[in-house]
Design a protein that fits this description.
By secondary structure, the chain is α/β, with parallel strands linked by helices. It has 2 domains: about 15-70; about 80-225, no CATH class. It contains 11 helices and 8 strands. The chain has helices at about 15, 25-40, 45-55, 60-65, 70-80, 95-105, 135-145, 160-170, 180-190, 195-200, 210-215, and strands spanning about 90, 110, 115-120, 150-155, 175-180, 190-195, 205, 220-225. The strands form 2 sheets. The protein has a 5-stranded parallel sheet, sandwiched between helices. The longest helix has 16 residues, at about 25-40. It starts with 13 loop residues before the first helix and ends with a strand.
């Protein structure tokens, strides 16, 4: 069956799983998970231990996995953050675009222990344009206006990557398809606009494009972990 979703709004269970009555347990779980990661526990084993202790649903466990890191990693990522003003910036296209689309759609957005925003939407090899896509590109363009140059990278193997790259070019930006956007970003060695934690751990500097945008969206649903 084809994917006919027009928005990246919340999962049907998100209001229950991430409602105010569940946040205390989620934050305690996030603290325990970060503590274990900081002591070099394997992420999978640590997540199972914490998830079982707090009886977390699979989607709540996915939230911890995406948004929580070891304290030293969080400090390192924060130290690598730079402003885009006057810099030649590379944009992790799907990463930032899907997060802003989710925020515009009222979907769940997580603020992680490294203070970056992440969504729980997944591309999984296929990207579908939604009603909020053009607005998301416009908002990201506004944040990038202060950069001296910006190059958007998209993974070629993801279906419809060529179409979204064309939309970005229509907005006045350079866009490139790469067999591996992560590898290409590392090769370029420029500040990278992304919230991909493991990728940030491998580069020298990154830019937070989504944070300022989402902070200005009155209806955005942001859960702090």
């Amino acid at each position: 069956m084809s994917d006919r979703r027009r928005h990246r709004g919340p999962h049907p269970r998100d209001r229950r799983l991430f409602g105010s009555d569940r946040l205390d347990d989620l934050r305690w779980a996030a603290e325990d998970y970060a503590w274990l990661l900081g002591r070099n526990y394997a992420p999978g084993a640590a997540l199972t231990l914490v998830g079982n202790r707090f009886q977390l649903h699979q989607r709540q466990r996915a939230a911890l996995m995406r948004a929580v890191c070891a304290p030293e990693q969080a400090r390192s990522r924060c130290a690598k953050r730079v402003a885009c003003e006057g810099r030649r910036v590379v944009v992790d296209g799907f990463n930032v675009l899907v997060t802003v689309e989710a925020a515009l759609s009222g979907g769940l957005v997580l603020r992680g222990t490294d203070r970056l925003l992440r969504d729980l939407a997944s591309v999984h090899g296929t990207y579908r344009r939604v009603d909020e896509t053009i607005r998301a590109i416009e908002l990201l363009s506004g944040e990038l206006a202060a950069a001296s140059e910006a190059l958007w990278l998209f993974d070629r193997p993801v279906s419809n990557s060529g179409r979204i790259a064309a939309l970005v070019r229509e907005a006045g930006w350079r866009a490139e398809l790469a067999d591996s956007a992560d590898r290409r970003a590392i090769e370029l060695g420029r500040p990278l606009a992304t919230s991909d934690g493991p990728l940030i751990d491998r580069i020298t500097s990154h830019v937070d494009l989504t944070g300022p945008i989402v902070s200005r969206l009155a209806d955005a649903w942001v859960v702090e972990l």
